[in-house]
Specification:
Blueprint lengths: L7 E2 L3 H17 L6 E6 L3 H16 L3 E2 L8 E6 L4 H12 L2 H6 L4 E6 L5 H10 L5 E3 L7 H11 L3 E3 L8 E2 L10 E5 L1 E2 L10 H5 L3 E2 L2 H13 L4 E5 L16 H9 L6 E5 L8 H9 L6 E3 L7 H7 L5 H14 L4 E8 L6 H14 L3 E6 L17 H24 L5 E9 L5 E6 L4 E5 L8 E9 L3 E6 L3
Parallel strand pairs: 1-8, 2-3, 2-4, 4-5, 5-6, 6-7, 9-12, 12-13, 14-15, 15-16, 19-21
Antiparallel strand pairs: 10-11, 17-18, 17-20, 18-19, 20-21
Helix pairs in contact: 1-6, 9-10, 10-12, 13-14
Length: about 475
Amino acid sequence: MAEKFSTLTDFNETQSEYLNLIFEIMEKRKRGDKPVAYIHTYGCQQNVADGENIKGMLSKAGFVFEDKPDNADFILFNTCAVREHAEDRVFGNVGALKNLKRKYPNIIIALCGCMMEQKHIADRMYKSFPYVNLVFGTHALHLFPELLYKTLSGGKRVYLRDNDDSMIHEGIPVKRDGSFKGWLPIMYGCNNFCTYCIVPYVRGRERSREKDIILKEAKELIDLGYKDITLLGQNVNSYGKTLKEDVNFSQLISQVDSIDGDYWLRFMTSHPKDCTKELIDTIASSKHISKHLHLPFQSGSDRILKLMNRHYDRKKYLDIVNYAKSKIPDVSLTSDVIVGFPGETYEDFKETISLIREVEFTSLFTFIYSPRVGTPAAEMDDPISAEEKSMWFRELLDVQEEIASKRCGSMVGTTQKVLVESEKGKDDILNCRTSGNIIVETKAPKELIGTFQNVKITKAGNWILKGDLVKE
């Protein structure tokens, strides 16, 4: 039985005072009219949400933000540990700052996030990058003002990996990156310990935010005009297990859905072992919940799923998928797949291919297995060559491309409600997104960005749709 505890409101007066002291220091250190910060976030939407908290705190200390590091007084990389490629990019980008730091010694360079919760990574940063001033992990986010103040006032490097994962620290300021798409964390950490995954080691144990706090923030986002709101958690389906109140994810999302407004409600990530028929029924009967279910299956082989410690089998996964299809017309199903897990054979891989063909996913996030130091899978025998895994990977992509092309083609002639998200780059073409998370391109004035529109689909590619704006 999971331990029950209440969340902690802990962005206190002390941390707020540190922000005031940082403001005073930066008035003397800034290179321009105002202190400038450059924040670069890697990885998942939870990292994006953490980055918005960091920007919120820096805003209260007087910082403005630029999208290049050249003019910055403070540079921070918010890191991801899930894939080796992301880690390599961080090391490369930090190395590229050496000359800028030499030219402007007062620049503060900082790193935070999941990579920094790994001791071997933090040690490498300390030894190999002496010009990095501040390093802190995911559990120390609420202490960021104090850590930055110590860095600025003491002139010494500050490193903190705080593994206290028994509390949630509420009340941290937030500066959102967008005006119509919003991220809303509902829980942190993970208890699943999939053998390939580093997340429980860097994000800590599972802990849920209080329902009333989530509902309050959701209403604030809706009242501010946000059109696309995503509830975040490493496994949203297990929401509520650490709370004193008896509430589950289906009940939470149903209460959010009951808030009046013109918006779509999404969530991620959803673990198959905890995905219930109650949740599917809630989505089916909702007013605002997107008819899109991201349900990572990782492998179609029961043998590999057991090695992965996923706690479900192929039949259980297909049962919930088929139930979703029966209850939610035109449900859009997406998933994650790992190719080349240690010990996987081609026969195991073909079971993954057969599952993909049976489900007919809208799209897939596909990865060749990347070993993570400290996880059980990193110690497993892995006899299949990288070249062979790459061949499997290409085969999977070809199959999914065929399925996606067929699905997109079936939508030609239909009219879809879309959220207009961004300019494509030229010729007044805008990128839009359906409730099912499919990209649609249409010609329209950029003033429509951030609004819902109707688009008649005229053409389908392998991954995107094109259409004409339906004028009222």
